[in-house]
Design brief:
Elements lengths: L21 H64 L3 E5 L4 H4 L5 H9 L7 E6 L13 E8 L4 E2 L17 E5 L7 E9 L5 E4 L5 E2 L5 E11 L16 E4 L4 H4 L2 E5 L6 E4 L9
Antiparallel strand pairs: 1-2, 1-6, 2-3, 4-9, 5-6, 6-7, 7-8, 9-10, 9-11, 11-12
Length: 279
C-alpha cells in the first residue's frame, strides 16, 4: 500500500480555491467596480475644487515672497556698492507716465526705451553719477546694472510715484541720464545710498537734501498690462497701461512694505498682522 500523502487534485471543471472564473462574477460585479471608479473620480474632483483656492493663495504668497526677497537683496547690493566704491549709488525706477515721457527718445535710445515699456511700475536699475578715481567736479555716469523687473504678479503701486499714502511718501526725483549713461537726463524716481551706506536725497538739480526719516517701498499684488499692437506685439507709446490690483486696493488694505532705515540703510520686510491693518 502506498503510504505517501494523498495529493488532492482539483477537478478540471471546478475553480481554484479562492478564485472565481470571470463569467461567474457577472455584470453585477462589473457594475460595482465602475461605480467605485465614479466615486473615486467624484472625490478627486471635490478635493480639487476645495483645495484650488488654497493652492492659488500659496502661489500668490510665493510670488510676493520672491518679490520682497529680490528687492531686499538688490537694495543690500546697492548699499554695498556705495560703501565699496565710496560713491552714491541710486536705485532708479521708471517715471510715472513713462509711456509719454519715454517716447521723446530717438534712434537706439528709442529702441531701448521701448523695451522698458513692459517694466512700468515694476522695473529698476542701479546707477552711479561718479566712480572711484573721478576727479573733483567731474564724474563718469554709469549704469552699474541693467534694468530688471519684479516677478510677474507684483508691482509698486502708482501712488508711490505720485502722491504717496499715509506714512509712505512718494519717491523723490532727480536728473538721471536715460536710457543710457550718456543719454540726456530726465527726472527719475530713486532711492540712493551714500558712501556710508545711509539713505540720501537730492533736489532735482542734484544738490544734497537733508533727510532724517525712513523710507517705505510698498508692493502690490496684481498686474500692469501695457497695450500692444495686435499684429507686431510691440508695446504702444502714449497709451497708459492697464493697472489691476488683485484683490482691489491691496496695496492699501493689506500691504507688503520694504522698510529702509535711513541711518543704517538696511532694509527689512514689514507686513500687517491683520487684514486691513497698516504697519
Amino acid at each position: 500500500m502506498n503510504t505517501a500523502a494523498t495529493v488532492h487534485r482539483s477537478s478540471p471543471t471546478s475553480p481554484p480555491r479562492g478564485r472565481w472564473p470571470q463569467q461567474a462574477l457577472g455584470p453585477v460585479a462589473l457594475a460595482f467596480t465602475l461605480a467605485e471608479l465614479l466615486v473615486v473620480i467624484a472625490i478627486i474632483g471635490l478635493l480639487t475644487a476645495v483645495s484650488l483656492p488654497a493652492i492659488r493663495k500659496i502661489a500668490k504668497t510665493d510670488t510676493m515672497n520672491a518679490a520682497t526677497r529680490q528687492l531686499l537683496d538688490d537694495l543690500s547690493y546697492a548699499r554695498r556698492l556705495a560703501i565699496r566704491h565710496r560713491t552714491t549709488v541710486y536705485m532708479v525706477f521708471l517715471p510715472h507716465q513713462y509711456y509719454i515721457l519715454g517716447s521723446a527718445a530717438t534712434g537706439p535710445e528709442l529702441d531701448k526705451a521701448e523695451e522698458l515699456l513692459g517694466l512700468q511700475y515694476s522695473g529698476y536699475a542701479l546707477f552711479a553719477k561718479r566712480r572711484a578715481g573721478d576727479q573733483p567736479g567731474q564724474g563718469t555716469p554709469t549704469y552699474l546694472r541693467d534694468w530688471v523687473s519684479l516677478p510677474e504678479g507684483v508691482f509698486i503701486p502708482v501712488w508711490k510715484y505720485t502722491t504717496g499714502y499715509d506714512h509712505a511718501k512718494p519717491f523723490p526725483r532727480t536728473l538721471i541720464p536715460f536710457p543710457f549713461a550718456n543719454s540726456p537726463r530726465i527726472p527719475m524716481p530713486y532711492i540712493a545710498f551714500n558712501h556710508q551706506g545711509q539713505l540720501v536725497e537730492f533736489y532735482p538739480n542734484g544738490d544734497p537734501k537733508p533727510i532724517a526719516e525712513d523710507v517705505d517701498i510698498p508692493l502690490a499684488r496684481g498686474a500692469v498690462i501695457p497695450p500692444q499692437d495686435p499684429v507686431t506685439k510691440k508695446y504702444i507709446w502714449r497709451q497708459p497701461p492697464q493697472i489691476v490690483e488683485n484683490p482691489p486696493n491691496n496695496s492699501i488694505n493689506n500691504p507688503n512694505f520694504i522698510h529702509i532705515d535711513w541711518m543704517t540703510g538696511r532694509a527689512k520686510i514689514e507686513r500687517p498682522e491683520l487684514p486691513g491693518a497698516r504697519p
